[in-house]
């Protein structure tokens, strides 16, 4: 009978050691999975924030371009009513449009930093590189860039270049074509 008790005690000790070993192996694996899921969540969240900042920059550029186009059209239309005006409306429109964009703090030399007030360090840098006539005579094409950043560091590697097309008013086509 004593022999049987001794072997049962040994069996219990082996079961306890095996349980400790299995738990010791499984716990680090579980922790690694939890930490990887957390890192993946943070990366996804950063990607979404970058996307929203990029959209914010694109929206800012579109609104500034549309407003500048309307203002330029109004100015050129006033000039066309002046009997002494002998300029080229197309070239003048482009010049006025560029000047109006600059009034929105958008030009090749200066770029605007639109900070997100809710999140410290989040910002987007927007600027234009080129304004040229489109393939048709009734449009201007703006090549611009948007650089979103979640920190105070903005690097050119995050730069996305896009184009925005401005359709000129129909009345504009009745005058001289662009030079």
TrEMBL record:
The chain crosses the membrane at residues 12-35. Keywords: Membrane, Transmembrane, Transmembrane helix. This is Type II secretory pathway, pseudopilin PulG.
């Amino acid at each position: 009978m004593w022999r049987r008790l001794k072997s049962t005690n040994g069996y219990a000790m082996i079961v306890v050691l095996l349980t400790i070993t299995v738990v010791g192996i499984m716990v680090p694996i579980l922790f690694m999975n939890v930490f990887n899921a957390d890192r993946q969540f943070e990366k996804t969240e950063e990607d979404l924030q970058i996307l929203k900042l990029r959209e914010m920059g694109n929206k800012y550029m579109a609104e500034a371009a549309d407003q500048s186009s309307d203002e330029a059209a109004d100015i050129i239309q006033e000039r066309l009513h002046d009997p002494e005006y002998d300029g080229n409306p197309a070239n003048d429109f482009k010049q006025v449009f560029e000047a109006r964009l600059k009034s929105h703090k958008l030009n090749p030399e200066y770029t605007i930093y639109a900070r997100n007030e809710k999140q410290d360090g989040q910002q987007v840098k927007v600027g234009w590189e080129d304004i040229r006539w489109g393939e048709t005579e009734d449009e201007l094409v703006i090549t611009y860039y948007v650089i979103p950043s979640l920190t105070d560091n903005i690097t050119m590697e995050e730069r996305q270049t896009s184009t925005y097309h401005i359709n000129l008013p129909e009345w504009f086509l009745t005058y001289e074509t662009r030079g």
